[in-house]
Structure to design on (692 residues):
């Protein structure tokens, strides 16, 4: 049968669609000989061995040489590349051959094509990233890190320790060198023997080192050991410093922890086995997707590198989150008032008004039907009103704490008018609880008895112990915030979110960044994290009043906080009160919450301690039974230790315990109140305003 020339002028046997491995192949000895030949020699051997005029076409090709970078393009020195030897490596037949009888021409492997495409995508993404980073505002050193005072304090303490205890410093340094040499010696032994010693489990309980390669691979095992050695050395060095006061100690410890967390090997591609494995498995696609995620985050945050914690496309407020039926019954420049539709024929006579924090959106109390506190309260027979705060812009720069207290009073007036009642019960969450306490003290001094009882969720009113916020509440950082306020008129949401995130950097900064930027994962569709990323701005005047007067000066628990012509004290809060704090709360530590309540002046005070943290401890519905709570008859005279010692533990949610307390103070049952059409359906319009 005649052969037709191919594009290179070589004779190619006509193909009948047979598999290259299923027909009569060359003898095994010849295949073995070919396989042992160097790649550049095999085409010549094949050409010499092939008969010039075979009687009939061959149905199988000879064994292919191993693919090399030179053969990937299809030719080696102008000679046609042999066909692949196995089906999985075979290049698909092109669909646009002019003659279907022609054998397929070798084409570029799919992996190489994908690599070229990824390189093009990386180049385009790189240009976008540079453009996005150029949009960043001029940095403000005051909020980028500690001021020079901290570094000077640490340097003086180091020099003092070196001068007074030189032997101790040298001993510590020699011990560090010795441990480092030991790590390298073990790594060399592991490389020589191919086996890593399994007797060292140090650090393996850390979730960052969950990959087995940290234990079994000599390189990664060395990286892990040395990182832990460095971390111990840094902590010991910081602990050995003789610092002037507790504030300096907390700031140095916090800064040391930030450095240790930042330098973790998991934060770098070359020393992260999970990221390297994913890159190999996806032929680099994970790194390209990670760069896409990085560019998206920088573009969304005006040039700032703030990692997205949740997939924003997964939720829409009012559609699959924040969906409790209700009506906007009042709108003011600072807030909307929502009344929720009753689900019971009867309701308590006294209405319930909830003030959520304006640092975030109110739908934290209405994430999903199964964990919605708003739905649960309506089901308990309460006429429920919730404030939805406006997300401030620069036009509200001069809005102060007095404006928020005035808004509290306006919301109360409206609720009482709509229900025909003279009194109501109020709830304040976080900073809204602090402001509710100020409002209650103001009403006390005015002789106004409209609030029948109050509930505080994770509320700080005594700031004598600044806890984990110590580093952020010193003059250098607060001065930096003041400069931000002067520039923008606001304490911007992204700065506040970043500050909060670095209190739990591994969970809220580095971990999400690794998953998003190195592994190329889409942020999770998690309602709580979605809400966490929907932060709001704070008006400049209000932010500085809060930071200076309440946090730094602790005026409310001390000499008195000046507001609206009154000097307000914690002892002025005398209404029946229930306070709920969370055992694992790092934003409002429960002992600090307890200390504020202990200084209030009322005789009727109840304290509930929930398990878990600032949000999960509050959004803890009875159906989950995940976190329990503590109740105590210990009172407030013996300190929080005595209160905790006398406490009893309940495995269920605290909601029913609070519900019983609230029902006793909510009045008799009356016909449920329908909010009517109002201005528009819940959740209203203010909740949709995002921080710019």
């Amino acid at each position: 049968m005649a052969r037709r020339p191919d594009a290179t002028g070589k004779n190619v046997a006509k193909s009948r669609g047979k598999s290259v491995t299923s027909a009569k192949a060359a003898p095994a000895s010849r295949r073995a000989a070919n396989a042992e030949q160097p790649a550049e020699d095999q085409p010549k051997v094949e050409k010499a061995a092939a008969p010039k005029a075979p009687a009939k076409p061959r149905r199988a090709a000879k064994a292919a040489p191993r693919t090399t970078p030179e053969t990937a393009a299809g030719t080696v020195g102008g000679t046609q590349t042999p066909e692949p030897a196995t089906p999985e490596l075979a290049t698909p037949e092109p669909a646009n051959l002019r003659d279907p009888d022609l054998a397929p021409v070798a084409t570029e492997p799919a992996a190489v094509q994908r690599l070229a495409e990824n390189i093009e995508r990386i180049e385009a993404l790189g240009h976008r990233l540079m453009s996005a980073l150029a949009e960043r505002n001029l940095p403000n050193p005051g909020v980028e890190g500690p001021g020079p005072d901290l570094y000077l304090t640490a340097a003086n303490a180091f020099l003092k320790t070196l001068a007074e205890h030189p032997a101790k410093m040298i001993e510590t340094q020699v011990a560090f060198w010795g441990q480092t040499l030991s790590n390298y010696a073990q790594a060399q032994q592991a490389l020589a023997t191919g086996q890593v010693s399994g007797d060292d489990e140090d650090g393996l309980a850390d979730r960052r080192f969950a990959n087995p390669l940290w234990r079994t691979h000599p390189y990664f095992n060395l990286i892990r050991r040395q990182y832990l050695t460095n971390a111990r050395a840094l902590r010991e060095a910081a602990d050995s410093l003789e610092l002037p006061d507790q504030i300096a100690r907390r700031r140095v410890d916090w800064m040391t922890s930030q450095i240790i967390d930042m330098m973790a090997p998991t934060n770098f591609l070359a020393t992260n086995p999970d990221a390297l494995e994913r890159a190999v498995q996806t032929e680099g696609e994970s790194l390209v997707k990670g760069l896409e995620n990085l560019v998206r985050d920088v573009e969304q945050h005006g040039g700032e590198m703030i990692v997205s914690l949740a997939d924003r496309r997964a939720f829409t407020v009012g559609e699959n989150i924040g969906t409790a039926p209700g009506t906007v019954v009042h709108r003011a420049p600072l807030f909307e008032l929502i009344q929720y539709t009753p689900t019971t024929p009867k309701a308590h006579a006294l209405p319930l008004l909830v003030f959520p924090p304006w640092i975030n959106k109110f739908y934290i109390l209405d994430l999903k039907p199964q964990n919605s506190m708003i739905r649960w309260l309506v089901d308990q027979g309460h006429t429920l009103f919730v404030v939805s705060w406006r997300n401030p812009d620069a036009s509200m720069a001069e809005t102060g704490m007095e404006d928020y207290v005035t808004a509290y009073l306006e919301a109360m007036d409206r609720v009482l008018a709509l229900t025909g009642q003279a009194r109501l019960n109020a709830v304040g969450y976080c900073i809204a609880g602090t402001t509710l306490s100020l409002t209650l003290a103001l009403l006390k001094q005015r002789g106004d008895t409209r609030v029948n009882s109050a509930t505080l969720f994770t509320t700080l009113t005594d700031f004598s112990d600044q806890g984990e916020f110590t580093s952020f509440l010193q003059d250098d950082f607060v001065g930096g915030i003041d400069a931000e306020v002067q520039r923008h008129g606001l304490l911007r949401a992204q700065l506040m979110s970043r500050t909060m995130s670095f209190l739990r950097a591994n969970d809220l900064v580095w971990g999400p960044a690794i998953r998003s930027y190195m592994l190329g994962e889409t942020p999770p569709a998690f309602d709580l994290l979605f809400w966490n990323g929907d932060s709001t701005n704070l008006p400049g005047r209000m932010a500085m009043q809060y930071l200076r007067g309440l946090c730094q000066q602790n005026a409310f628990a001390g000499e008195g906080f000046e507001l609206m012509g009154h000097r307000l004290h914690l002892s002025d809060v005398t209404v029946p009160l229930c306070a709920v704090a969370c055992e694992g709360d790092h934003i409002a530590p429960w002992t600090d919450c307890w200390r504020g309540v202990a200084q209030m002046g009322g005789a009727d005070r109840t304290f509930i301690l929930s398990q878990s943290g600032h949000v999960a401890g509050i959004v803890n519905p009875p159906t989950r039974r995940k976190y329990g709570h503590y109740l105590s008859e210990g009172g407030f005279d013996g300190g929080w230790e005595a209160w905790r010692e006398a406490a009893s533990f309940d495995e269920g949610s605290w909601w029913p315990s609070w519900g019983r307390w609230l029902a006793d103070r909510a009045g008799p049952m009356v016909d449920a109140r329908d909010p009517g059409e109002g201005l528009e359906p819940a959740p209203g319009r203010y909740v949709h305003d995002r921080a710019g």
